[in-house]
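Table S2 (text version). Query chain:
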Amino acid sequence: GKSTISLGILASLLDAGYSPKDIAYIKPSTQCVAATLTARFCESNGVDYVHIGPVVFYRGFTRQFLDGEHGTSDDLVGKCARAVDKVSAGKRFVVIDGVGYPSVGSIVGCSSADIAVRCGARVLIVGKQGVGDAVDSFNLCAAYFESRGIPVVGAIFNKLATKGLYSIDKCSVYIKRYFARNRPHQGVYGLIPAQDGLASLAPEETCGFTFKHPDPEGLVLRVEGMSEDERAAVDLVRELFQTHVDIRSIIDDVKAREVDSNIVTGVHALRALAARPLSALRAPGSTIAALVGLTWNLSMLILGRSVAFIRSRLASQERTLHSTLRQTS
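Corresponding structure-token output:
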């Protein structure tokens, strides 16, 4: 359901007042080379998109990599990061679609976590239905990203039943209760009910593998616009998001965690520099930029935490003063 959720976010951003020129969509690494509805939505609405990124895990790719083909892990992640940077130019919000579960691609050192670190991305996890399975799966996925220091802002839980023991209403209570107790800094941005009308989208996310990259020259592949049936499917996704997803909180929380993700990217750059110090001589500009960026983001993080601390202290003192006044009166 990741691509469908990506589609819903893009449509919701347009509904929230973002211009098509302000947003973009990219799937930097993929197993699927079909033209997805998300790509056709972007084409029809003037949104920049790259639905087949520079890394395609086609059949035999990982064996070829382990045999010494396709360069290094850093080469693969670098291609993905440059593709993200290119489509992000001048944008306010970019949706980076993941591939499979979080560690897909780790065998070649190019998982969604590797790409997120390099790009300074924040992560929104698409969760399962149920309660125990939904939360346990979220924790497993979140831990993979968090082990790298990547900010996980929260989750949208998808395809929940509309009735019965695992209905969306019953599951919502317990999932939100768990997050409030154990992950208070991450959001449950929505729980979306299963819809028969979206069943036709499923084949796009489980499409067949290929035996080669369809765009070896790195050109931008275009797709056709949406059909009337596809427009109806998009309208249904848009309606589900309007009813069940808090897109404004997603936007706010992604912005709030920008400094955290930039620090992760800066630390990664410095670690790479320490591993290959001679690269600093070959690209001194990049080294200086990484140092300046890391210093700036650390300063902003310290300033932000200091302001938050001062605010909490003032609020505490204000509560104490109000309590004292009540007692004296």
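Notes on Table S2: DSSP finds 13 helices and eight strands in the chain. The CA atoms of residues 184 and 213 lie 42 Å apart.
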